[in-house]
Design brief:
- It contains eleven helices and 14 strands.
- It is α/β, with parallel strands linked by helices.
- An eight-stranded parallel beta barrel has the order 2-3-4-5-8-9-10-11, surrounded by seven helices.
- The protein starts with 6 loop residues before the first strand and ends with a helix.
Length: about 300
């Protein structure tokens, strides 16, 4: 099957590990909420859903495999088609072993893998929250003032080996242009295999910003390093830049990611009540550009999953 060039993949990141429950009453926390949001996102047009787990009692990011198992079972009981991408980014303070444990346990078609270390600054959120629901929330945000998200060459190589052994394709998370050079090195050494799949993550304090200059920088560097036939790319703009960056990504020929992991707002001052709303907005923008969301089957073809 040859997929039309008008087809673009929408990934929906359901809950993530960045936003805290005090920021929105609609942030999915329980396995039921996360699974239902994933189902709604798929129904709205997402070809890929990106999964993190949280402790149901407090909303704190969790590496608990049983929580992941429950989420995956609940999704697959209703939707057997959508591509599931499980995180190996995990949450702050998790070890590399905890983060990658989902891959041998569940053998997903796709899993995220961070392509380098960065400073990870979430502490500015402290100024935007007047009252916290849980004690862990301000503590987590405060710790990021002195936190480096570690992804060394040794740990990345180990993760890639585990991915390869379990038939899982890495979705390489790129937070800055230096990460593209990390990927180029791993591609040259055969640690990752073409066609590679990359997610350009912009707008995190410590990584690249979400301006048009930054998106062009990532895109042209990737073109120069990899060439058109060796990679697929998608882009997000954390926070208010989400749809601006996504639209620019579409115009440049890329795919897009939306979801409550990346932004809590459907529009200025309007909290999104469900991930399905965020995907539906992205579909509307696509249609204005004469583009269409790729189906899960088309998504698998584009990303060369299972090959």
């Amino acid at each position: 099957m040859t997929v039309s060039s008008s087809k673009r993949i929408i990934t929906c990141a359901i809950t993530g590990a960045i936003h805290v429950p005090s920021m929105s009453p609609y942030l999915p926390i329980t396995t039921e909420q996360i699974a239902q949001n994933a189902i709604d996102a798929a129904n709205a047009g997402a070809g890929v859903i990106h999964i993190h787990a949280r402790k149901p009692e407090t909303g704190q990011p969790s590496p608990d495999l049983e929580l992941y198992r429950d989420i995956l079972q609940k999704i697959r009981a209703v939707n057997k088609d959508v591509v599931i991408c499980i995180t190996t980014g995990g949450g702050l303070g998790m070890t590399a072993e905890q983060r990658v444990s989902v891959v041998p346990e569940f053998k997903p078609e796709l899993a995220s893998m961070n392509a380098g270390s960065i400073n990870w600054g979430l502490f500015p959120m402290l100024d935007k929250i007047n009252e916290f629901k849980f004690p862990w929330e301000p503590e987590m945000l405060k710790m990021t003032r002195n936190y480096i998200f570690p992804n060394t060459f040794e740990s990345m190589e180990k993760m890639c080996r585990i991915f390869d052994e379990n038939g899982t394709k890495p979705e390489l998370e790129v937070y800055d242009t230096g990460h593209l050079y990390n990927i180029a090195y791993m591609l040259e050494k055969g640690i990752v295999k073409p066609p590679i799949t990359m997610q350009f993550v912009t707008g995190i304090l410590g990584g690249i910003n979400s301006t048009p200059f930054d998106i062009i920088n990532l895109h042209t560097t990737a073109e120069r390093l990899f060439g058109k036939d060796k990679y697929n790319w998608s882009v997000i703009g954390a926070g208010k830049a989400e749809y601006t960056v996504a639209t620019m990504g579409l115009l440049l020929g890329g795919h897009v990611r939306v979801g409550l992991e990346d932004t809590l707002y459907l529009g200025k001052g309007i909290l999104a009540k469900n991930n399905g709303e965020l995907v539906a907005k992205m579909v509307r923008i696509m249609k204005e550009l004469d583009l269409e969301p790729a189906t899960p089957r088309e998504t698998r073809e584009i990303l060369a999953l299972g090959k």
